[in-house]
Amino acid sequence: MRFARPDLLWLLLLLPVLGAGLLAVSARRRRALECFAGGAAHRSRFVGEVSPHRRATRALLWLLAAGSVVVAAARPQWGTRLEPITRSGIDVVIAIDTSRSMAAEDVPPNRLGQATHAAASLISRLAGNRVALVTFAGRATLICPLTVDHGAAKLFLDTIEIDSAPVPGTALAEALRVARRAFGEDEAASSRTRAVVLFTDGEDHEGNLEEALSALKRAGVTVYAVGTGTGRGAPIPVRDSRGGSGGYKKDREGRVVTTRLDEEALGTVALKTDGRYYRATPTEIEIEEIAGALAGMDAREFGTVLRVRYEERFQIPLGLTLAALLAEACLSDRRRKPAKTAGAGARA
User: Fold this and answer.
1) Is the dihedral of CA 120, 122, 128, 131 positive or negative?
2) What would the pLDDT profile of 274-293 be if each residue is shown by its tens digit?
């Protein structure tokens, strides 16, 4: 036997408290009766018709009912059966830019920090759907394949850092190609079951974006682009070998490089795949809108698995509770009067 909510069984420790409360009520009733009768010597004149054993039995029935309710709430289970579960949903690949420009601090705490927090919020809203993670800088890497284990996806998300991709730069086209390959080669999938959510500042150092967008369009993949950063831009912090501040990135002429959000490029990416562009906000209202758009897509079956299901047996303690309450309601405090014999009636 097992309990689905074993934590509720701790409430059984309150039964002695409830029993002590019932004893306190009984003692208070006895003192009130003695006061009314004018002392303990006269109390027997008023308790002749009340059975203390019946009152004790009613109190025990109350305790039994309370304990049975707690056990029923803990959901006792025994016996198992195999239940087929068909999983369905959509496939979502989250691609996150980890290039050095994402270290810019024009949004708090920085662009990458805002992107990873928003991605975690999105994953929390994708229950039942498969999620994959892609990081990219000068090269794109699939760090988490499609999975329904969102906890594992968030663990991978926590490991993302600036320049976690092996090659510096920003290869936006390759990121989209890796995201498309993450969906697999299932050509029978509906065009409304796949989406890419792209978190980046829009900088692209490699080109060939048109070809990648055309491939996504043919595969029926919709891209939702989330721009992190500001149009005003910010310098790119440089860290030394110890992780401390090393100033800002400079060009060959020694001028500080300013990185800016390229909303035009991200708008084009979203438009050509029938998606939509959003600018990242501190309130993450764009995540709510993206989650709503994804929820409106057509779900597809991922397959059927057999799950062991335990049989619920809460009905037994719940029935015991009802029986105890019914018995308590039907049991009177009064003593049973002895029946008069026929002979005594005749002599009377």
Assistant:
1) negative
2) 999 999 999 999 999 999 99
Residue 160 structure tokens: 């993302």
What is 266-294 written as a DSSP string? Answer: HHHHHHTTT-EEEE--TT-HHHHHHHHHH
Q: Is the pLDDT of residue 163 over 80?
A: no
277 inside domain: yes
Task: Evaluate whether residue 131 is within a structural domain.
Answer: yes
Q: Are 18 and 87 a contacting pair, CB within 8 Å? A: no
Residue 215 to residues 27, 46, 212, 219, 267, Cα–Cα distance (Å): 84, 95, 5, 6, 17
Question: Measured between alpha carbons, how far is 249 from 241 in angstroms, rounded to an integer?
Answer: 15
For Cα atoms 61, 65, 70, give the angle at the middle one, nearest 5 degrees. 150
Distance (Å, whole) CA 41 – CA 43:
6
One domain for residues 318 and 300:
no
User: 55 to each of 62, 105, 308, 320, 333, how far by Cα in Å?
Assistant: 11, 74, 47, 20, 6
For residue 345, being part of any structural domain is answered with: no
Q: Which residues pair with 200 in a beta bridge?
A: 227
Do 266 and 124 lie in one domain? The reply is yes
Query: What's the rounded Cα separation, in Å, for the pair 78 and 306?
Result: 18
Task: Count CB-CB contacts under 10 A for residue 50.
Answer: 13
* Model confidence, pTM: 0.66
Place of tokens 């009314």: 36
Q: Is 169 contained in some domain?
A: yes
| Partner residues linked to 140 by β-bridges | 136
